[in-house]
Specification:
- It is a single chain.
- Helices cover 34% and strands 21% of the residues.
- It is built from 13 helices and eleven strands.
- The longest helix has 17 residues.
Length: 341
């Protein structure tokens, strides 16, 4: 995988143009690295001076992804029982309300309808495919991580290990294609938007969910925002930049909203307590006992005390705060519903 020096990144500012609007990009964060799993390498983030779209540099390629995810993403040890139990919750009473209150409805497949053929690009641990199966919805998946093959085979799911450019399930068109927290991982979102459109039925929909750089949390936590997630996240969108990019490929926005998973807020607070070290993994994400702890800022300590003294009450307060952020469009994840023009 590629690494970079921040001085080189600054010198190359004039060479980069925004994929969404064509304007110039300049360095927004000079040095940033993997503060979750300790993947080596130092990167920078460029920001468009016009629409605010952001890009990780140097970029990865599609060929980089299988090795990156099979090495660093925590899917090598699989608990089939836990996956099955998680997927079964989709049919429990009040499941939709619980997803809303917990902010876990930031997944496009929950909007799938019986009778639709659904393709999940980047299906990960396959829970989404099992949830749709439990709802009587036909689904297919694509996943770059080779570790997922054992999950798909265990549950008898239709999953292609690779990418959409391999033209899997070539004789099929889909009524709904979902990318749940995937587009930000894609080295070339423009190519992905075109490839997805080519696989849609004439009246098909595309639902994409990805982190929102216009969120309240991003502005508060700055370079410690958990959704930078370098180098796995290659592109960083806001509402304006993605609307422009989608429009270039013949999509119209049918609906857009923000959703903040409460778990993300918990992980954000825990991550902020750790001292970031280049090339070192985080105890929050890997339970690494060697991660160095530092005394967090006063505001963070106050929040952590609230969490420790009343988990249920604090959870309700956190959930309420997140739902308010979502209502005003400042939540941590964007969910776009698109249709081709």
């Amino acid at each position: 995988m590629k690494t970079t020096d921040s001085n080189d990144a600054m010198n190359n500012d004039h060479q980069m143009q925004c994929m969404a609007c064509g304007s110039n990009m300049e360095t927004f964060i000079e040095r940033i690295s993997d503060d979750r799993y300790g993947c080596p390498g130092v990167y920078s983030i460029k920001r468009c001076v016009s629409c605010g779209h952001m890009t990780t540099t140097p970029p990865l390629t599609e060929e980089d992804l299988p090795g990156l995810y099979s090495t660093y993403y925590p899917r090598r040890e699989v608990d089939f029982s836990a996956i099955e139990q998680e997927a079964a919750l989709v049919n429990k009473p009040f499941a939709a309300f619980k997803r809303w209150i917990n902010g876990t409805d930031h997944q496009g497949h929950y909007l799938a309808k019986p009778g639709e053929k659904v393709l999940d690009v980047g299906c990960g641990s396959c829970i989404s495919l099992l949830e749709m199966k439990n709802k009587g919805i036909e689904s297919w998946g694509i996943e770059a991580d080779p570790n997922v093959r054992t999950i798909a085979d265990h549950f008898g799911l239709q999953v292609h290990i690779g990418n959409i450019y391999d033209l899997p399930f070539a004789d099929m068109k889909f009524d709904l294609i979902v990318l749940n927290q995937v587009l930000e991982h894609v080295p070339d979102p423009s190519a992905m938007l075109q490839a997805v459109r080519d696989r849609l039925t004439p009246q098909g929909r595309v639902i994409m969910a990805f982190p929102n750089t216009g969120s309240f949390h991003r502005k508060i936590w700055k370079d410690r925002w958990i959704n930078w997630h370098i180098p796995y996240h290659q592109n960083h969108f806001n509402r304006t930049s993605f609307t422009k990019l989608a429009g270039k490929f013949g999509y119209r926005v049918e609906n857009v909203r923000t959703i903040t998973p409460n778990l993300w807020s918990v992980l954000q607070l825990r991550t902020a307590r750790e001292r970031k070290q280049e090339g070192k993994s985080s105890s929050t994400w890997t339970h690494n006992i060697d991660a160095i702890q530092v005394r967090p800022p006063f505001l963070t300590r106050l929040k952590n005390v609230a969490l420790s003294r009343g988990a249920r009450g604090a959870g309700m307060v956190m959930g309420l705060g997140n739902r308010i952020l979502d209502a005003v469009g400042k939540g941590d994840s964007l969910l776009f519903v698109l249709r081709p023009n």
